[in-house]
Structures are given as C-alpha cells and as structure tokens.
Design a protein that fits this description.
single chain, 149 residues, alpha+beta, six-stranded antiparallel sheet, 44% strand
Amino acid sequence: MKKLSALARHLLSLPGVKRDNVEAFADLGKLSLCATDLGQGFEIGKFRYDAIFSIERFPADQANRLLAVLAVWIAENDPERDLLNLNDPDVDVTLEDEQTVFVEISIKFEESLSIVPDPDGPITWEGQQWRVDDVPIDVAGAVDKLENI
C-alpha cells in the first residue's frame, strides 16, 4: 500500500494538517492473484483498495487548496488510473464550526505486489526465499537487428 502511505505523508506535510487529526486506512481491498515472471522476480498479485483519509479540524478557508493538492498529487503519482478504470476520488466536506471542516477522501488505488529472491527473505515459495520489493527491470541499451514477424 505504497500509494496510501505516500499520499498520507504528503497530506501530513501540508499546513493546517496535524497528525492527531488524520486517519488513513485501506478499505474494501481485493487481492487478484497471478504469478507473472518478470525476469528478476515475480508479480504475485494486484491489490485494489479504497484508501480512506479523514482529516478533522482542517481550516475551512484552505479546503479548496487541499483539493487542488490532492488533484496534483494524483496526476503526478498515479498516472495509470485511466488505464485501470479507477474512478475519481470521492470527497465529503462537513462544516465543524465557523473556521474548521471535517474532510473525508475516498480514492481507489491498484498496486502490484512483487517479490524478488532473497536468501534471508521471509517468504518461502517454490523452494526459494523471497522478499516483497519492486522487481528491477532490465532495459535494452540498443537493438542489433529487428526482423519482420
């Protein structure tokens, strides 16, 4: 749940957002299993979930800035949303008093779960030890010959 953690850290860095006023969690998660060999590791699944962020006592006059920051973060950090058919975030803003609002954000994320070989890894699969990590991708530096198929 890298995206959940990254967005939570980003929201906590904003003026007016205090750690004690924020709750973030994953809800309605669905794990789709696969075992795709990526060369130096495997994608073993995809995890689709609703990331829920609740912010209490947020300055009411900064609510539009919060929404703009959210939109920019999503554009920069989750560019494959359209390909994955993920809906836009749902946002509820409730007036708490004249100066503060309660904000609840629900955003669907999908993330790959990948494992790489590690002799000390905590996961045993197919007689080998693994750890959860991004699989390094080898990129060709050049192509010598391209044939018609």
